[in-house]
Design brief:
Mean pLDDT: 96
Shape: globular
Number of helices: 2
Distance between the termini: 5 Å
Strand content: 15-25%
Strand order of the largest sheet: 1-4
Structural class: alpha+beta
């Protein structure tokens, strides 16, 4: 799975970083960024939860 964050939609709620901290972090502008673009294994479940929890639907999941 490939993960990306649309910086034009992200409002910095940081739910993703709380749910999947090995995949997302909050940058100096208080916006989420992806630190592991191709997570695997058990992390995929966390990433899917983070994407579902995003209030602005800024997280996109795609095929590897």
């Amino acid at each position: 799975m490939r993960v990306s964050v649309d910086g034009t939609k992200c409002e910095g709620h940081a739910l993703c970083a709380g749910i999947a901290p090995t995949v997302f972090e909050v940058n100096a502008d208080d916006l989420a960024v992806v630190v592991d673009e191709y997570p695997g294994g058990a992390t995929e479940s966390e990433v899917r939860s983070a994407a579902s929890a995003c209030p602005t639907m800024a997280i996109a999941l795609g095929e590897s």
